[in-house]
Amino acid sequence: MVGLVDCNNFYVSCHRSFDPSLEGKPVIVLSNNDGCVVARSNQAKELGITMGKPLFQIEDVIKAHQVKIFSSTYPLYGDMSARVMGILGRFVEEVEIYSIDEAFLNLAGYDRVYPDRVALAQQIRSTVAQWTRIPVSVGIAPTKTLAKVANWYAKRELMHNGVLELTDPSAIQAALEEFAVEELWGVGHRYAGLLKRNGIKTAWQLSQVHDVWIQKHMTVNGLRLAYELRGTPCRQLELEPAKKKSICTAPSFGRLVPDLATIKEALATHVARAAEKLRRQHSTAGVMTVFLHTNRFKDKEKQYYNSRTVELPHPTASTSELLHYAGAALESIYQEGYEFQKVGVILSDFTPENHRQPGLYSGSLDERLVKLSGVMDKLNTRHGRDKVRLAAQGFCPTWQMKQQWLSPCYTTRWKDILVVK
Amino acid sequence: MIAAEDRLSAEDIIKAEIITKLEIPFFSSYVQAGFPSPAENWLEKVCDLNDLCIDTPEATYFVRVISDSMIGDRIDAGDILVVDSSKVPADGKIVVVWLNGDHAVKRIKYAGKMVVLHSSNPKYLPIYVHPEQDDFKILGVVTNVIFKPM
What we know:
The structure holds two protein chains of two kinds. By secondary structure, chain A is an alpha+beta fold. Chain A has 13 helices and 14 strands. In chain A, a hairpin with a 2-residue loop joins strand 5 (95-99) and strand 6. Chain B has a seven-stranded antiparallel sheet with strand order 1-2-7-3-4-5-6, with no helix packed on it. At the A-B interface, helix 4, helix 5 and strand 14 of A face strand 1 and strand 4 of B. Chain A: Residues 2-188 form the UmuC domain.
């Protein structure tokens, strides 16, 4: 038996956790750079504000209904997520953190400890609510896919009181018959179209299709999905977070940037950030890609997109070394005369840091650089991001993201903690 | 020659992966050859203020005080409160509450259906709350007060 715990409107709920005056009001959270809507309170959904809507298209609704806006405040979301996941770990041994606001629980073997799974789920809900003030919904079913379906109903239909268990075959059938196939976990745009064209509209219909047809048209992944819908687990809980196979850092500029010097400065910061992530998972990168592009949505402007992939002489996680190659790659693709929106870096071809092999001709990596990066990470963890940095990252960045509606980071910055009278 | 049944096959050799680090106190006394440090058997984790102040990390929040309303309980403006949302706000506890648009620190008393929030400074009157009518929530119980002595 699998449980899926999902936080309701997670980003919005994080803001409400520390500011109850937002309760019952329309609230939205914007993506990086304050571009599009990435989270909505139920009241904002009722106003017809859809996911991914660019801010400038909903300015009228926002004014008319006094919709409260927040820029993405990731330090707050990250910490609140860790709290929720920590609480889940107090109830069951095996928790798969699936995303910032979702986790699967392995409930197998808990029949003696928790004979009533719905009661357990309600207890999880009330504990998370009391400790973090974040509302969650719980779906319980024999497979992860069905747990997702159960959660979908638990969240949307008030009568379930936030928890739905789907174990009885007839209950599962009833739930799947009402469930649109494109809402299923793992059914993307392409498969949704294919299924519709073949008259398969509901999850139940998909579960009844012949295996041969599914495998032919949807590969073995489709087959797994069908089995999961029929109640046979095919997706196991992934308890060890898989190490990332590539790291990409590419936030948009806060404004359009034409000049190489500013772009270089931004790239240096992105490289530093990506290298930090790389070191945190104890990997080194063998390949680096740098890309640069203009704003594709401004179709009247001249467009440019280019990227350059560099094979590094030896795998490295040293910021200064990566910067050296990133700078050269950028110079090779930079073109004058465009208004650029984004520069980014992708690191890939990872090897564990304690596994490095010196390049045949290029010699090995300078150990002092490795140590230097480690020391920088420690100092920055203690004293704040970018307190120690390479001069290439610049001193007064003019390219940074727009974050006009940042909320306090109530739990991660001393100057931002809640105040009381 | 290693006996056949004693041999390790290549797939049994698994590289150790060190994901987390546990810091262990380091004793810097010189150890004379042959005489191990007598302290070695008594290695312990160093005292951590978190152990003293925080029972439930997932439910603990820090809050800054900006008024003198609880001065009688040695809570003054500028102090930082350690607030635990998992604790039961029992009668007589000092709690952080949300009331009609503001957060406040008060001593809570229950009187029938009413909640009474007491300050410990005569300048401030007790506040009577109707939990069903007022916009009222309890954030948590104050477990520690942090302040720097003058």
